[in-house]
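User: Hello! I'm new to structural biology and keep hearing that structure can be predicted from sequence alone. Could you demonstrate with Acetyltransferase? Please show me the input and the output so I can see what each looks like.

Assistant: Of course. The first part below is the input, the amino acid sequence of Acetyltransferase. The second part is the output, the predicted structure written as tokens.
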Amino acid sequence: MIRKATNLDLQMIQNHAAIVQQEATLGYMSGNPALINFDMMNHYKGEYYVIGDHQSIHGWILLGETPLPYEHEIVGMVLELYVLPQWRKHGYGKILMQYAIDFYKRKGFKRVQLNVFSGNPAKNLYDSLGFQDVSTLMERRI
């Protein structure tokens, strides 16, 4: 059900990049989302994994790793999670996130981190899986 993304999958993911970026960042990020995605893949040694059946992809997750800036430890990083609108409310986001947690456990990591914008409904999923706020980025427009 979950597999590493093929080149064909990556093209489909890239075609959805602008929509994903808009939804995930609630409109905060601009630029070329396709370049941002693939820059993240390279910077974080990321790999996409997709969920679906033989006919279609229902969603995907981008997994990477990063050193913690305040400790000498490499942690797993969920860089992107997306479920196509027609497949939402079927548990695919939770399945992908559980896959990520298990993936990092098998690699011997002790922590998994992710970044989520305030107001993103996916935060409820992350909370339900035991993720906790570590820091808060605040902003004021001037």
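User: So the tokens describe the shape?

Assistant: Right, they're a compact way of writing down the 3D structure. Reading them back into a model, for example: Residues 4 and 49 are 4 Å apart (CA to CA).
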